[in-house]
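Protein modeling request. Please complete all fields; requests missing the sequence field cannot be processed.
Requester role: graduate student
Desired output: 3D structure, token encoding
Chains: 1
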Amino acid sequence: MQVHQLAYFVAVARTRHFTRAADETGVSQPTLSKQIRVLENSLGAALFVRSRGGVELTSAGEALLPHARRILLEVEAATRSVHEVAQLRRGRVRLGATPSMCDGLVPDALTTFRARHPGIELEVREGSSGLLRRDLLEGRLDVALLIASAGTSTPHLETTPVLRERLVLASPADAAVPDEIAIADLRHLPLVAFREGYDLREMTNRAFARAGVSPTIAIEGGEMGGVLRFVEAGLGHAVVPGMVIGARPGLRASQLVDPPLERIIAISHHPTDALPLTVRVFVSELVDHLRHIDTADVAQV
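Delivered output (301 residues):
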């Protein structure tokens, strides 16, 4: 049983005439008649009773007709859905990003993409880079913005570095902190620390270890939004990406020196050839968006 045979059958059932049905479906009458016979043979039952007055459905034809109509409607709907996705009118992208990127980079990138493709559904999940890689591998995400670890790669994933991001010391706007401060000198300041396992927490810990000093932790265990609010409230200082401070007038940034702290932002996903069209387009436009960011806090890789 073929879809085109069902289409011919429904056309004959509607018109009660083989020639008119052939004209409607754009085939010759002999071709249509042959395909109806093939369909009847495959089903083992006659579908029409032919007479000089026209064509009538047999009981077998009456039984087949609602199923044939439903199948044709489902095929039409499936074809339409594929065309809509192919033309980027529908679809879904599941994006993962670290909390700092959700606070800094992601909103503008998603706004740009939504303006171009309003029919594409976007789902965003926050997490550490390690959790985002796991979710990618397990199929819970399509693409992730994460921190690239030097000298490491994840099998079965393509990871493309796109930005070098500068970290700064966030302080209350009225704090007496110099515009530049060495990592070792942070030991004199009360710090608001991110929770264990957080990318920024681990990076800051390594910086203190290299400088041979121990930090003074005032508050421990926060996420990005909470850490920034704690700093605004005057509870301490925090090492954060420079881009998250711009929209917060209650904070000021001091450049970290001796050494400066930077991290690499990367886009990670399954091999491009295996990605759905909507995800491929999203990745392409996200890379283009990030590579045209104009801010002193990031540089192109």
